[in-house]
Amino acid sequence: MSVVPTNPFARKLSAFIDLSDEELGIVENIHQRRKHFFAGRVLVHEGQKDPATYVLVSGWAISYKVQPNGERQIVGIQVPGDILGLRSLLTKRSDQSIEAILSIQAAEIEVFDLVEAFMKTPRVATAILCAASQDKAIVVERLGSIGRRDAEVRIIHLLLELCYRLTSVGLGTKAGYACPLTQSHLADALGMSPVHVNRVLRKLREARMVTFRDGFVTFTDHDRLAAYSRFDPDYMS
Amino acid sequence: MSVVPTNPFARKLSAFIDLSDEELGIVENIHQRRKHFFAGRVLVHEGQKDPATYVLVSGWAISYKVQPNGERQIVGIQVPGDILGLRSLLTKRSDQSIEAILSIQAAEIEVFDLVEAFMKTPRVATAILCAASQDKAIVVERLGSIGRRDAEVRIIHLLLELCYRLTSVGLGTKAGYACPLTQSHLADALGMSPVHVNRVLRKLREARMVTFRDGFVTFTDHDRLAAYSRFDPDYMS
DNA sequence: CGGGCGCTTGATAGGCCTCAACGTAAGTGG
DNA sequence: CCACTTACGTTGAGGCCTATCAAGCGCCCG
Fold this sequence. Notes:
The structure is a homodimer of 237-residue chains. Chain A has 237 residues and is α+β, with helices and mostly antiparallel strands. In chain A, 45% of the residues lie in helices and 22% in strands. Chain A is built from 9 helices and 12 strands. In chain A, strands 1-8-3-6 form a 4-stranded antiparallel sheet. In chain A, a hairpin with a 2-residue loop joins β9 (172-173) and β10 (176-178). The longest helix of chain A is centred in the middle third of the chain and has 27 residues, at 122-148. Chain A is globular, with a radius of gyration of 18 Å. The model of chain A has no long low-confidence stretch (mean pLDDT 93). The structure holds a DNA duplex (30 and 30 nucleotides).
């Protein structure tokens, strides 16, 4: 294995498949065209035609759908190294909106570069497909969470999942991580009301399990919490 | 456009991309090795290594995950023409179980054939990726459903979604379709209790909106129901 | 300094769950 | 051919989890 890349995207792909320096170079080339977006900016609108696809370099983003009744369901939380809007490369039309949570940097992916990378290096292609596959696994896991777990476990699992994902790109440890999400974001991601999220968070804090506050998530005892909530990160690998 | 294929898989792919006779032949070749499974048979177990991938030829199947607390979350309902366990071609390990609902016929896909088909005909490859993409869109939609809609609309949407999917492979019309699911299946798919599913179904039946009974789903007025529940099948295309 | 946003907390209500009992139909074995 | 079993569907009673409404606090920013 070569040196661990600092670039989160390369780092994430390396976790799936051990890439050579040359292959890492190709990955690097994929995101030349960096763009900057301010916090709150909507990169892609639901229903938009031919939206761009990006790799998130720094900052967080969320993808969501707005229901007819006006409520919002967050269907994905993206952290550095994640791909934004991969699906729309195929469909030519986005079925969800993507919004920057923080001020972010994103690298636009051109279909051409991607296809070329696929041709040249099947290993990189496979790694990207793995990333897409992991993406789906995360959605499926969330589906199970919302459908069959109570509010407390739902929140714990989401916080642990983010811990796992951030750690894999070097932005977190078992002790915790910086998290720009608001309680309302959690509510929209987990199918709950913001008020109830607040209550559960308070309970978790008072029970000395997790603290979600001031932009930081802090685990008192990560492993005990994982055992208590029966969290198993296997679905992501 | 050539003649509409009777084969549900070919028919489904044709809906995404208009395939030539030659390409349809290749699709046909993919599923030579037909297998038969009795109702209730579990084709793939959660955690199983190197599980097979199939195309469902006839009958229905469900994929699900069992939560630590013993409850079951159905994450996918497969009808003829759908692919079973595509993800595990990449991951080498299934993160969900797949079970036959009816006595089914399934064609095993060999990685080799698939790769070959991809090489020979990028159009077929694209169509299959579209199918995978549709699959994800369906999960995302269900996530929104469970998270942000009440029981009644949740059930209606699922029944309408199945109507749409079955119609696209020639197994249903706007009037209704044969449906082997039990009320418990609906409950496990929608994150509800079987008892509550029963009550909501009764209400829908008495309101003359949908009838779910004796293995058949019957819509009194499909379009009115779609409008009432604000169902929009766009996410599947 | 007003206003917006996020967080907090209390009171109240309701949707859905759980428990439990019973009906019905189909399959099994003697 | 009938007792027995099993699976699915139906219905009622009671209660919990979570939503909703409402009000107040602190902070940042124009």
